[in-house]
Task: structure prediction
Amino acid sequence: MHAAFFALLGASLARFLLRHPWAELGPWVVALSVALAALYVAPVPRRLAWLCTVVAVWVVLVVLAPSFAWCAVPLFYTGLRTLPPRAALVLVALLTAFVMAAQLRLADGGIDPNLLVAPPAVAAVATAVFVHAQRQADRLAATERREGTLAERQRLSMEIHDTLAQGLSSQRMLLQAADRTWDADPATARRHVRTAASIAERNLAEARRFVHDLAPADLAEGAGLGEALAALAAREPGRLPVGFRVDGTPVALPDRVRSALLRIAQGALANVREHADASSAALTLTYLDDQVVLDIADDGRGFDPAAPPPPGDGRGHGLRAIRARAEQLGGTLTVESTPGEGTVLSVSIPLEQP
Result:
C-alpha cells in the first residue's frame, strides 16, 4: 500500500507537469507533493494529528490539481488503520465525495456516470478488503495465542516433570532408604539424608527459576552446556555413577538449545534411576559440523521401544517429553534398546535453528 501511494503520487505529479508545464501553480504543486511524501514517511508520535495533517495537505493539493485525487485510495487504508471504525467510515465517505468532485472538475463539468460510480465502488472494495484482512488477522492472532498457551502448558509440564517431580521422587527414595538403614548403618543413612537435602536445594533453585522464567540453575551463572552436564553427572546419587565426556570442538549454542539439552539429560537420567535398574550411565556431548548430539546410555534392563510402557511406568511420559523438546528445536530423538542389554537415547539438534 505504501508503494501504491508513492506510485500514484508520482504519476499524478508527472501528469500535472506534462499538461501544465511550470504554470504559476507549478511550484506550489511540486512543493505540496514533496511535503505530502515527507509527511507520509515521517515518524508518527501522534497518529491522529499526523493523519489530519496528511489529509489536509492532500485536500489542498487536489484543489490545485484534481489529478491527485486517486491518492485517496491508500489514504482509505491509513484512515481505517488509524481511526475507530465509525470515524474511519466517515473519513472514507468524505474522501470519496472529494474524489468524485475532483473527477467531475477534470471532466470540465460534464456528467460521466463512470465518474459517479467508480469512486464509491473503489472505496467500498478497499474498505471490504481491509475489514476482511483485519478479521483474518484477528483470527490468526487468536489462534496463535491459543497455540502459544498450549505450548507453554506443555513446556511447563515437561519442566516440572524433568526437575521438580524427578527431584522429589529422588528425595523420597533417599529418605526411605535412610529410614530403612538408620538403626543398622547410621553413617549410610546420614549420607542419604545429606544427598536428599542437596537435591532439595537444587529443586528450590529450579522453582525460583520457574518463577522468573530464566534458564536452568546450572546455566544461570553463564556456565556452558558442557560444564552444566558435568555438574549434573557429578551430582547424581552414588548408587548410579554417571560418566561424562565431550567430543568435537565446542561451539556457542543458543540459550534455548542449552536449556533444552540440559533438561533432556535431567529427564533421561531420572528415567534411568527409576526404571532401568542400571549400575552406571554415561552422558556424551558431541559437536559435529551441522549439529550437536547428546547421548544418554545406561547398562540397565533395557526395553522394547516399540512396545507400550507398562501402566504407571513414568518412562513413557519421559520419552514423550524428550521427543517433544527435540522436535521443538527441529531435532530428533533416537532410542536404541534391547531387553537385558541397556538403552541409548540419542538427541540430535541442528546448529542452525529454524
